Amino acid sequence: MLDQKNNNDLPPIPGKRYFSIGEVSTLCLVKPHVLRYWEQEFLQLNPLKRKGNRRYYQREDLVTIRLIRSLLYEQGYTAEGARQQLNGEKTKKNKTRYKQLINQTLSELDEILLILKD
Asked: Which domains does the chain possess?
């Protein structure tokens, strides 16, 4: 994810549910027009839109924006490379979840087997 060194340079994310594009711009040190551009480039970034087409970002959006910022600005990835990295992160998370679920299911099946043997 984010390097600790780079993460410390950014302001902490407050405990709010929704953030305006101006707040996100300040918290992630990225201009609003760049955020709007990234919405087109990165499918993972999809803020809620309400009245007047205003954008409202959630905490996970801010984390994604900070990751994109790190990939592009600090690690030197192109937009395409950053997109691939983000897709790889998602795949890793899904694999980890499935492994946990499978291990839990196997554990439960072992317990059932022990009960049935008694």
From this structure: 4-117 (1.10.1660.10)
pLDDT (0 to 100) of residue 95: 65
Can you give 78-103 as a three-state secondary structure string? CHHHHHHHHHHHHHHHHHHHHHHHHH
- What SS3 class is residue 7? helix
DSSP 28-80: HT--HHHHHHHHHH-TT---EEEGGGEEEB-HHHHHHHHHHHIIIIIS---HH
- Please give the model's pTM, rounded to 2 decimal places: 0.68
Helix axis angle, 21-28 to 32-41, nearest 10°: 90
What is the distance in angstroms between the CA of the first residue and the CA of the last residue of the chain?
48
CB 95 within 8 A of CB 53: no
Asked whether residue 1 carries a pLDDT value surpassing 90, the answer given is: no
Residue 4: which pLDDT band, with cuts at 50, 70 and 90?
A: very low
